[in-house]
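Quick board copy: two proteins, each given as sequence then C-alpha cells.
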Amino acid sequence: MSETILTPELQTALDEANGFVQGSSFVLMTVEAYREMMGVGSDEEMRSSVEAVHRGLADIEAGRTHDMDDVFRELDETYGTVG
C-alpha cells in the first residue's frame, strides 16, 4: 500500500492538535494517535493484542466457543444485563 503524503498544512494541523484533526465530515489522525486510541500505543501492547487475536482464532478453529444466546442469558442472570 502506498503512503499518501500530507500537505504541509495538514501536517501542521496534526502537529498542533496532538495528532488528531476533526472536520465536519472527516477525522484525520496520526498512526500514533490511532494506536493510543485503540489501546495499543506501545509495540508491546500491539504484539500482545495481535497474539490475543491469534489465540482467539485458534479457539474458534478448535471449536472452543459458546453459543451467543447462552452467553447473553448467563450474563443477564449473573449481572442483570440484557443481551
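And the next:
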Amino acid sequence: MIDMEDTKLDFQTHTFHHVPDSPGGSDNQLIDENPSSKSFWSFDYYKQFFDVDTDQVKNRIIWGMIPRPGVNYVHSCIKPNPDLYGPFWICVTLVFTIAVSGNVANYLQYAPTGEYKWKYDFHIISFAATAIFLYAFMVPLALWSFIKWNNKSQSSFQEHLSFLELLCVYGYSLGIYVPVAILWVIQISWFQWILVLLGAALSGFVLLTAVSPAVEGPKKILVLMIVIGLHFLLAVGFMLYFFHVPFYNYKMFSYMNNFQKMNWPPVFG
C-alpha cells in the first residue's frame, strides 16, 4: 500500500525561452504553410491547396476586384486558408474568354467591310495562356523572393506573405479581366481604354493593399510602382494585342482587295 500522507508532490516551474512553431509553419517554406506528414509527391499534399468552399471563392473574387480603403485583402479574405483552386480556374476562364472574345472582336472589325475573309485564330489560346500563367506565377515568385531577401536586412517582421498567399492574391486579381474581356468586344476605342484603366486600377489597388505591408525599407515605393506598373501593362497588352486594331488596317485591307479586283497587272492581247 502507498501511504498518501508520506507522498510529497514536487511542483516545478519551467520557463520556456523558445516559442514552438505556430500552425502556420516556418517562413522559409515556399508553398506548404501547414507542415504535415503528407508526402510531397502524394495527391493529398496538393489536395489541401484546393480545400475551399464556394462562399470563400465568391468572396475572394468579389473583393479581389472591388477595393476597400483601409482593408487588407490578405487578412480579410485570404488568411489563414489561401487556395489555388480559385486562381487556377480564373486563369483558365480568362484564357478562353480572351480567345473567344478576341476572335469575335476581330470578326466585328472586318466583317462590315465585306472585303476580308475572316477565319478563327486558334493561336490566340496559346498566346493568352502563356501570358496569363506566366504573369500569375512568375511575378508572385519574383516578388516573394525580393520580399524575403529585402526583409532580412530590416529590423521588423510585422507582416509576412508566403508564396502561396501571393499566388492566391495575384490569381484572384485577374478575375476582373473576365468581364472586361467580354466588354472589349465593343469596338469603341475610348471605351476600350476606359476599361483598361478601370480594370487595372481597381484590382491594382487591391494588390497594393495586400503587398504594401510586407515590403519594408527605402525600396518600398519602387517595388509598389513596379507591381502596379506590371498590372497596367498586362491590361494594355490584352487590349492592344487581342482586341484593338488601328484604323489604318481597315484602309490597308480595303486597298489590297480593291487592287485585286482591278485584275492588275493588265493583260494586253
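Board note added afterward: The CA atoms of residues 115 and 256 lie 9 Å apart.
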